[in-house]
Each structure stands twice: as C-alpha cells, then as structure tokens.
Amino acid sequence: MYREFKLIERIEALFSDADSLDPAAAGKHGVRVGIGDDCAVLEPGAFDLISTDTLVEGVHFRRDWSSAEDIGFKAIAVSLSDVAAMGGRAGAFLLNLSFPPDLEKPFIDGLLLGLKQACDLFRPEKFYINPIGGDVTSTSGPMMITTTALGSSTPGGALLRSQAQIGDRVFITGPTGLSHAGLDILLDGGEEVAYPALLRAHRRPYPRVLEGAVIGASGLAGAMVDTSDGLIQDLGHICSASNVGARIFLDRLPRHPELIAYCEQFSDEKKLFRYLLGGGEDFQLCFSVPERHIDELQRIMQHERSRDGADGGADCSPGTNWELFEIGEIIDPVEGVSVVDAQGEKFQLDSVGYEHFAP
Amino acid sequence: MYREFKLIERIEALFSDADSLDPAAAGKHGVRVGIGDDCAVLEPGAFDLISTDTLVEGVHFRRDWSSAEDIGFKAIAVSLSDVAAMGGRAGAFLLNLSFPPDLEKPFIDGLLLGLKQACDLFRPEKFYINPIGGDVTSTSGPMMITTTALGSSTPGGALLRSQAQIGDRVFITGPTGLSHAGLDILLDGGEEVAYPALLRAHRRPYPRVLEGAVIGASGLAGAMVDTSDGLIQDLGHICSASNVGARIFLDRLPRHPELIAYCEQFSDEKKLFRYLLGGGEDFQLCFSVPERHIDELQRIMQHERSRDGADGGADCSPGTNWELFEIGEIIDPVEGVSVVDAQGEKFQLDSVGYEHFAP
C-alpha cells in the first residue's frame, strides 16, 4: 500500500503525459485547478454533466476473477458510459479509493494503469480525460472504487430519458447479455477458453462512449440510456420518464455468437432470451429515434465507421464499431415494455422469470 | 436495509421540502436535471467548485461512538467545508452509500436526517443544498459514505492555496485540537459528561461554511484551507503552494476552555500544543490576509455577527460566530512553517513529536 500523498503523486504522474497533447488548452480541458487544493476549480460552463458510480469488491468485481487493470478499466468505464448515455463527452473525473492496508503496490499500479487505458481509449479527439481530485482512505473491508465523471452535453442539450415520443424507433449499439453470461461462467467455476468474449464483457466492459457522443452531437436521437441494469429495465426507465410504452422485436436483438453457443449447451431454450433482455452491465446504449431521422443518423455512423477504419462490428466484437441495431418502437404507454417474438406473438416476460433474473 | 429504489425515493422525499423555498429558481438552484437520469444535468456555469470525501466506518466514525444523525451530518459537513475553504458556496451534492445488508432502516433514516440537518444549517440564504445523484451499493465490510459537493466561487475567484504573499497575516476562525481530543477521550473509554464540546467536535464537527462564503465574497483574503489535517500541516499546504513560509504565535492560538481543562489533567505540559498544532478534523478555516485588508474584513465579520445575532464566540462554542483570530504571519519560504512561543523563542515542533502525532 502506498502512503496517501505518494499515491496521489503516482496518479498525477501517470496522467501527466496528458499535458503533451495540447498543454495550453486541451490537456486540462475545462479545469482551472486540478488535484491539490480543497476543491478542484472548473472553467465556468465547461461541464454540465456529472455521474458517480461505486464498485465494491465482492459485489462488482473479484480479485481472483479480474486483473487489477481490468478492475481499474471497469471502474471508470461505468461512469464514462453514463456521460455517453446523455449524448455527452467526459473530460474529467474524481477518484475515491478505499483500499485494504495490505493491498500491494503492483496491484494498485495495475488498477491505475487500467483507469488510464480507459481514459485514453475513450477520450474526445482533442483532449484527455483527467483526474482532478478524489479521496484515498483505508478500509478493513472490501476494496471500493468510486469514480465521478464530469462531461459536457452537446449544444442541442442532453439526451434525457424523458424525450422519447410515440412512433420513435428504438435502437441499440450492440448485443446484450454477454456480461451476465460471463459472470455466470465465472460463478460456475470458469470456462476460460471457450467464451473469451463473454468473460471479457464481464471483466472489462466496453461502453459505447464514442458512439454516444456522436449520437448526441447529431441532434437526431430522442431519449437514451445505457444498459447497465438490463435492456428491459433500462428501457423501462425511458418509458416511465417519457410516459410511453415500448415494443421490442425479439428476433431483431443483436446476438453475440458466443452467447448463442453458450446457451445452446443448456436444455432451457429461453435462457438466451433471459440474457438478452435482462442481463446487466453490458453498457450498450439504447435510444429512441424519430423515424424521419433514421437515415441521416445511419449515414453519420457510416461516415464515422469509414473514417475510423472500423470493421462494422458484424461479429459484435468489442471496440468502437459505430453499428446501430433497430430493435423496436415507442408506443402508447398502456402496454408498458413488451416483447414480440418472430411470429408476432407477445412474449411473456414473466415466463422467463424476468423479475427474478434481473441482476 | 432499504431496497435501492426505495432508498433513493426516501432521499428525494426528505429533500423535497427544499422546493418550497422558491420552486421556480432557487429550490433546485443550478440544476436542470437531478436524481433519476444517467447523469445530473447542471445549469452551465452554475458550479465551478467540486470536492469529494469518503468516510469509512471504523476509520472516520464508529457506530457505537456516534449517532446515525451525527454520522450523516459529518459526512456532508466535510465536503461543504472544502467548498468553504475556497471561499465558495455549495449548492448541490452527490451521495454514494455503501451499506452492510443488515443495516437497519431507523439507522439509515437517522443518517439521512443528519445529512439534511447539515444542508439546512449551511445552506446559502436563497436556496437549498440538494442531492442530485449518487450510487447505492451493498458491502460485506464497513459502511462507507462518499459525498461530492458542488459549489460556486465568488466573482473574484476561488481562494487558492497558492495565493498567500509574504507580509500577509494568518487568521483562523476558531480553536483547534478539539476533535482530536474528543477522539482520544472516546479511545480511552469515554468521559461523556466532562467534555461535551470535545466529544461533539469529533462526532459532529461544525465547519465554518457561512464564514468561508463571506470571506470569499469579501475579496479581501489571500489563500485559504480548512484544518482537516491539523493546523501545521494544512498551513504547510498553503506555504508549499504559495512558495512562502509562515510563523505562528503559539500564545495567540485560540484555545477552547474544555481543551485546556482536559490537558491539565496530564503531567505533559506540551500535550495542549500538540492538539492545537496537530489535531485534525476541526474544520476551522485558516487563511492569509494582506495587512491593508484586515480592518475591512473584521468590519464585515462584525456586521454579519450583528445581523446574525451571534454572541461572538468568545467561549469558542460551535455555531456560526463570525470570529477571526490573528495567529501569525506569512514570511520568507526558507523558514517553512515555524511556531514562536510567548518569549519569542522558536518552538521546536519535533519536541512535541509532531511528525508522529499528525492524525
């Protein structure tokens, strides 16, 4: 374990190469005073979005299941995902670390490195995502990591949950259920080799941070959430806030081939649907788009994909792939969130034990 | 233990009377969207100060030593103190709670009530300090409470640690050492009756939130910190950041009568000085003032005191008393932080075991 001041020094040193990008303005974008005073001082108006998440050892991660780097990566990824879910871009974060006193320095270094990797991977084009403050404490219990991300919405405003309208189409950025399946594999004792994507989704989720910012900047989407609690539950948040219902077409949900293969080994044919509809922590973005905006939004994503050299994500691989899947529609509120199968029949959510499944 | 959504509902309900003050603008001052979306959305430019603190059960508080209300009060008071130490005013906060699953509802209710009491006590004149987001998790270990306060600095700018200048005088808002002495009493088995102020200082510290905002708004002070780590160490932060030294006059340090009485029972005559100079968590404000500004600043504090009907705090009681004590001066950096006794002799900090004493 590092002493508090030493740990803060290490964090500052790790992120100080951020200054090299554009020291004058971009390196500490939006921040007048970072680590080292009683408060951080922000440029007025730089950030209008803020979100915080706590990861608890034994609840959100286990040291025998995830590497230190994975844990650090996930700890900040979940907060960056929340900013993305508003259509915004994160530019700074606070970091609260509560460590057991015997936690070893290499582990701490790995955790900080994972944090930095996520900040590098998901940073906006012209500046870095910098640590601007936090707190370091010791604990006799499980390790805890709290990240608080600060971001800025686009000039058109944040994509609130309350902005879905009847007739909008529902989109998602990629397949769901992977993280929960990965967790189940680990709980069952681990099949490390067969399902690397599922395990990776649990250990090092890949939030759609860059896609979220582009969707936000386009001004073409309505309401947006990230799928941290599971697709049905998160879409339910949009429906409650917007006073609408939603109909999901089961056969249109993107399915990762590993999830299909994993579920085929069970004699329970509905297992796959439970993962797709109820599995949490995938950090895809689910959002509504008015029909007249769909073509334009797809053109923008196609443009980003070409510019990026991304392969389009047909195999649902992690990575920023600019793929959008149309999976349903916003309807009258009386139906709530419903799911329709390939035959057009209403799929009974309670028949897959949905209530009890939600993580 | 409440379920997560139920707990969030309770927090919202507890703070919803805030809307009654001025629902149109003031109730949710600076906040466009509070609890309930992926991020809170702030009014651009409303907040430029942010600080976060984590309190860990067993490290920062014990359930058998403090009431639930005291713990909640302290949890937010420490963050509000950080905003005050920049000369700013807090207007919103995030709350991350990690609770053992068997934590009882009355305890949680008490904790939230204590939080609300602090927010009511330290709120700016025209609006409330509102919760705008957070995270609720369970933990197998000690309870943890993280508060992240958002505030706004005065138009003249935040009172940074780097703004002290040679020749400035050093002021403090009240006596130090109480909280540490209170902790020692509890560690020794508790003398509940004899030293209520010392125990209270540990359990329910009274940060100088309102004074900090007025000092900031006056534009008359230089650098400021709160005494969370102990006077010498915190003043050391100003000296490092400002590249100056500081000389403290030992006989000018305000001394609470209970602290004097408590220390008199020991045969160690330097015990009092150790508390005064090294005791942490008193959350007084220590700051520099250019000599030409002193009279004006004292006039402003006198005015606030009359307006407030405060008794002036001659007895060092908790409460907003608008008292300022001149305790030293900013000097050349070569001396670092030094302490001079009543005879003008340099007091040897290491002679009181300062290094080892700092909490």
UniProtKB/TrEMBL annotation, chains A, B:
It comes from the Bacteria. One of its GO terms (biological process) is thiamine biosynthetic process. Mg(2+) 1 binds at residues 52-53, 135. Pfam families: AIRS, AIRS_C. It catalyses: thiamine phosphate + ATP = thiamine diphosphate + ADP. Pathway: Cofactor biosynthesis; thiamine diphosphate biosynthesis; thiamine diphosphate from thiamine phosphate: step 1/1. Mg(2+) 5 binds at residue 229. InterPro entries: PurM-like_C_dom, PurM-like_C_sf, PurM-like_N, PurM-like_N_sf, ThiL-like. Mg(2+) 4 binds at residues 38, 51, 82. ATP binds at residues 134-135, 161, 228. Mg(2+) 3 binds at residues 38, 82, 226. Keywords: ATP-binding, Kinase, Magnesium, Metal-binding, Nucleotide-binding, Thiamine biosynthesis, Transferase. Substrate binds at residues 60, 281, 354. Mg(2+) 2 binds at residues 53, 82. The keyword Methyltransferase does not apply. Residues 36-151 form the PurM-like N-terminal domain. GO terms for molecular function: ATP binding; magnesium ion binding; thiamine-phosphate kinase activity. Residues 166-303 form the PurM-like C-terminal domain. Its EC number is 2.7.4.16. The keyword Phosphoprotein does not apply. Belongs to the thiamine-monophosphate kinase family. Catalyzes the ATP-dependent phosphorylation of thiamine-monophosphate (TMP) to form thiamine-pyrophosphate (TPP), the active form of vitamin B1. Reaction mechanism of ThiL seems to utilize a direct, inline transfer of the gamma-phosphate of ATP to TMP rather than a phosphorylated enzyme intermediate. This is Thiamine-monophosphate kinase.
